[in-house]
Amino acid sequence: MRTYFVRVAADKQVVGVFVAPSLVMLAVLVDECCDPNTCEYAPAGMGGIMVKEPTTATWPLSDPANDEQGRTQFATGLEGGALTQQWEDDLRFAPNGLVWKPLASALPSTESVARDNVEESEGRPDSGQIT
Fold first, then answer.
1. Looking at the DSSP assignment, which residues form a beta bridge with residue 97?
2. What is the C-alpha to C-alpha distance for residues 43 and 39, in angstroms, rounded to an integer?
3. With a threshold of 0.90, does the pTM exceed it?
């Protein structure tokens, strides 16, 4: 698994931090909130998101999603979270560290994705998967 920073290419707006085994699966995750074809990604180095102050939230989350949008009633524990120093440095001083690439250009053709899905379902190693 790899961790990726994702932003909208046109205006550099933050989309999120994602963990995915491949760029194809990264695009699937990004598609939950926006069009991955409009985004760019940068592999994240060591780092994370921390809870700055004590929270009443526990994991696993104690409340089920309670509406059609999947929102929950209680906190996830990450509200007001802070980046570790390494990630803050990587994102603040991006010209010197992160290399952003278009997510769309990293994705294989539809035929290749279909082949990869068949190979994964049959338990064969996937030599053509983008990581």
1. none
2. 13
3. no
Report d(CA 112, CA 129) in Å as an integer. Answer: 9
Residues contacting residue 121 through CB under 8 Å, at least 6 positions apart: none
90 CB-contact burial (10 Å; exposed 0-12 / middle 13-18 / buried 19+): buried
Residue 49 backbone phi and psi in degrees, to 5:
-115, 130
**pLDDT digit string (tens) for the chain, length 131 residues:** 999 999 999 999 999 999 999 999 999 999 999 999 999 999 999 999 999 888 888 888 776 666 566 666 677 888 889 999 999 999 987 566 799 999 998 887 644 444 455 455 555 554 444 44
- CB contact at 8 A, 62 and 76: no
Amino acid at 73: Q
